[in-house]
């Protein structure tokens, strides 16, 4: 019996690459086998700032099996230094150039690459490279860096400052109820399981195949072409599987640059993998200071918002985030002023990390809103509903959709919020203080121009392809479902190709735009195949579909049939046979189009969420357990409830991590992140994670993107840390305004 299972958009199928992943058949950047491979090991510098005086590599070179030691002394010429680089994700400034000269810009900077016939030999020889330095004064203390705080330039840095309204200063001064608080977020480092790695295959004719850990293979290809003065057509970058990234793989990292440099110089295939420790020597979520001042009437009506923030960047690039806009957009309040600046420290440039800007800014704003609700003596959920806005308050535009009210309601119901008592420390159970907190999350619902191809074979097998990436988010599955939805084919007959720069053009996977964008591109390509099939079917002898329009037919179970009379139809394979077609191949591009661009100017596009958290705090020991989380997301149409839920779960875990665990600690004497390993840089383990319930509220939105999809990769983290912090206040009566909330801050 042929059971037809719905696998299209909206169905909770298992991720199609799941079996490959759990059986080890999915290969990551450092796992692709290449004959005659050389191994490069990076030598990291010891000082935070200054210059290399001597670099002694003769001992390393003397080790049998060592092929070359690359450093600023002998590096080959690269084109980068002649013209601008092409990394589309780079912030304004002058990007770090590994092995360029003797200058040291940050601790752990790569100073040499030892290349050998085996990894073990390279690693041993790397330990023999000696450098001496001239040390210059440095500063890695972000609090001290406030003295060098500056406003990014609107023109040069393409910075979009917040739009102020009303008179926030006067309103704040006059407010009968007010809070004023300073918040701090520690530096956090991305710690995906897969470390940055590149396997560069020297193809003999000078062209390269590069297996790279990246969120955008075409961006890496264009970057490498620019840096090494190569034609983009001679470089193919592959990232069929990515072991997590969270933003760390948006920019090409220095190991790909070093591996390609070595491969070209030696005309051999080369692999370079960063160590876990070296993962702490590139981008990180910027350290942040944020000051929030809020005013309200005695009845809880918000009257004033003043929101100011500083985030860290390096001395050589101006990395910026949208930190202060979120609360200004979200709440009905007539007077609001925001201000944002950056301050340089002597580290590598900070970079995007899951929901950059919002994860920091909305979290602190939502912690301040909780403080204001308490100052006004109002339940924090009721307070948010009282100041609810249907429109984007900062830009004065309507949203394409905003089902945040429903998220609050469904989340509160599932959590049991009505059973909460308002007073801090009022819900003690045994030796545990119980606290319940709520917060709001907000992120952009973006769409990015994307192309996809579709290729239908005579046997009914379909291949869809795009240079998109799947960083664990489910892109393979999204593309499969968009295709299945349009052409009515079973999953087994659909193959997806992605993670290859030679495929149709796609953006980097970031900003939560990939599902909406590549989903639309695949749908367009498959619709174009469907049209060709229908026109061939209509021409068949005695065709039941003669004269039928696309609207009158349905593609389902491998057949094309009349919607009104499903018995009248033909199998797709029959159409292919009758028309003598071996293959139907198309490529289509999904873009916002004119109407989309007009809509983008006139309407705001955002995802929203309501997060409810229960914590239990051991009063004597200060140990916090997050025992329950309900995250209710309003994110438009859900392509796959199962993979979508996984995205929110991951975001919530990362939010709990931000609230309680993650902190890159610097020894300012050496300007170095000290806890650069999984033992000392804390991320949650299974024992830290308890019950998490994910709710998707109904939010039909045909306008936001072609499929009505808003994206889910980032919204799960936004506001979660605030809900945890607010719950900790409710449990303990202590306001901790510096994240992470470690035990020492509670006892
Ligand atoms: Mo995400 S920080 O856009 O990879």
What does it look like?
This protein has 17 helices and 31 strands. It is of the alpha+beta class. It has three domains: 18-25 and 448-591, 2-Layer Sandwich (Aldehyde Oxidoreductase, domain 4); 32-137 and 192-275, Aldehyde oxidase/xanthine dehydrogenase, a/b hammerhead (Aldehyde Oxidoreductase, domain 3), CATH 3.90.1170.50; 146-188 and 284-446 and 601-745, Aldehyde Oxidoreductase, domain 4 (2-Layer Sandwich), CATH 3.30.365.10. It has a seven-stranded mixed β-sheet with strand order 3-5-1-11-8-9-10, with helices on both faces. Helix 9 packs parallel to helix 17 (720-732), helix 13 crosses helix 14 and helix 16 crosses helix 17. The radius of gyration is 27 Å and the shape is globular. Bound molecules: dioxothiomolybdenum(VI) ion. Dioxothiomolybdenum(VI) ion binds next to loops. Residues 23-137 form the Aldehyde oxidase/xanthine dehydrogenase a/b hammerhead domain. InterPro entries: Ald_Oxase/Xan_DH_a/b (IPR000674), Ald_Oxase/Xan_DH_a/b_sf (IPR036856), Ald_Oxase/xanthine_DH-like (IPR016208), AldOxase/xan_DH_MoCoBD1 (IPR008274), AldOxase/xan_DH_MoCoBD2 (IPR046867), AldOxase/xan_DH_Mopterin-bd_sf (IPR037165).
């Amino acid at each position: 019996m042929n059971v037809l299972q719905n696998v299209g958009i909206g169905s909770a199928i298992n991720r199609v690459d799941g079996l490959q992943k759990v059986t080890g058949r999915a290969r990551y950047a450092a796992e692709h086998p290449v004959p005659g491979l050389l191994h490069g090991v990076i030598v990291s510098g010891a000082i935070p700032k200054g210059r290399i005086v001597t670099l002694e590599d003769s001992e390393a070179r003397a080790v049998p099996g060592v092929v070359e030691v690359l450093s600023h002394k002998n590096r080959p010429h690269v084109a980068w230094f002649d013209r601008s680089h092409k990394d589309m994700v780079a912030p304004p400034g002058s990007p770090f150039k590994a092995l360029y000269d003797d200058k040291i810009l940050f601790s752990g900077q790569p100073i040499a690459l030892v290349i050998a016939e085996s990894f073990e030999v390279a690693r041993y020889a790397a330990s023999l490279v000696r450098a001496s330095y001239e040390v210059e004064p440095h500063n890695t203390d972000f609090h001290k860096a406030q003295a060098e705080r500056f406003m990014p330039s609107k023109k040069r840095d393409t910075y979009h400052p917040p739009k102020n309204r009303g008179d926030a200063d006067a309103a704040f001064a006059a407010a009968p109820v007010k809070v004023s608080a300073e918040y701090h977020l520690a530096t956090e480092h991305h710690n995906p399981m897969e470390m940055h790695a590149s396997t560069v295959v020297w193809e003999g004719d000078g062209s390269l195949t590069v297996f790279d850990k990246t969120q955008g293979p075409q961006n890496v290809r264009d970057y490498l072409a620019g840096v090494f003065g190569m034609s983009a057509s001679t470089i193919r970058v592959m990232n069929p599987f990515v072991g997590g990234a969270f933003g760390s793989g948006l920019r090409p990292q220095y190991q790909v640059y070093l591996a390609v440099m070595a491969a070209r110089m030696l005309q051999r295939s080369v692999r370079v993998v960063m160590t876990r420790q070296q993962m702490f020597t590139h981008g990180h979520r910027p350290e942040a200071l944020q000051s929030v001042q809020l005013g309200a009437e005695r009845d809880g009506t918000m009257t004033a918002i003043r929101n100011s923030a500083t985030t860290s960047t390096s001395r050589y690039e101006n990395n910026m985030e949208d930190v202060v806009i979120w609360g200004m957009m979200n709440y009905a309040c007539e007077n609001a002023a925001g201000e944002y600046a950056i301050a340089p420290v002597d580290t590598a440039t900070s970079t995007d990390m899951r929901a950059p800007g919002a994860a920091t800014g909305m979290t602190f704003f939502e912690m301040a809103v909780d403080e204001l609700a308490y100052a006004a003596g109002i339940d924090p959920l009721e307070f948010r509903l009282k100041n609810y806005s249907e429109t984007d308050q900062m830009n004065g535009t309507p949203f394409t959709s905003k089902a945040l009210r429903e998220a609050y309601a469904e989340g509160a119901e599932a959590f049991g919020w009505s059973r909460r008592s308002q007073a801090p420390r009022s819900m003690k159970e045994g030796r545990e203080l119980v606290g319940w907190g709520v917060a709001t999350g907000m992120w952009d619902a973006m769409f990015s121009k994307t192309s996809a191809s579709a290729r239908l074979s005579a046997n009914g097998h379909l291949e869809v392809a795009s240079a998109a990436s799947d960083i664990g988010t489910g892109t393979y599955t999204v593309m499969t479902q968009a295709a299945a939805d349009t052409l009515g084919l079973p999953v087994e007959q659909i193959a997806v190709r992605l993670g290859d720069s030679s495929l149709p053009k796609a953006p980097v996977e970031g900003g939560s735009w990939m599902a909406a964008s590549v989903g639309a591109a695949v749908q367009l390509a498959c619709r174009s195949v469907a049209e060709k099939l229908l026109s061939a079917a209509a021409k068949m002898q005695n065709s039941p579909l003669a004269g039928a329009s696309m609207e009158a037919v349905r593609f389902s179970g491998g057949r094309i049939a009349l919607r009104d009379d499903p018995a009248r139809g033909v199998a797709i394979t029959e159409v292919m046979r009758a028309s003598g077609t071996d293959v139907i191949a198309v490529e289509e591009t999904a873009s916002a189009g004119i109407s989309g661009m007009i809509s983008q100017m006139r309407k705001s596009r955002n995802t929203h969420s309501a997060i409810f958290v229960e914590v239990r705090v051991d009063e004597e020991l200060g140990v916090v357990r997050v025992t329950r989380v309900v995250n209710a997301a309003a994110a438009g149409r859900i392509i796959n409830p199962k993979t979508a839920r996984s995205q929110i779960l991951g975001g919530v875990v990362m939010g709990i991590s931000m609230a309680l665990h993650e902190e890159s600690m610097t020894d300012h004497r050496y300007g170095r992140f000290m806890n650069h390993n999984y033992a000392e840089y804390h991320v949650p383990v299974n024992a830290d994670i308890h019950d998490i319930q994910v709710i998707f509220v109904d939010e039909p939105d045909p306008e936001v993107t072609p499929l009505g999809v808003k994206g889910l990769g980032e919204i799960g983290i936004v506001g979660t840390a605030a809900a945890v912090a607010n719950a900790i206040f409710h449990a303990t009566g202590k306001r901790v305004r510096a994240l992470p909330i470690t035990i020492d801050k509670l006892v």
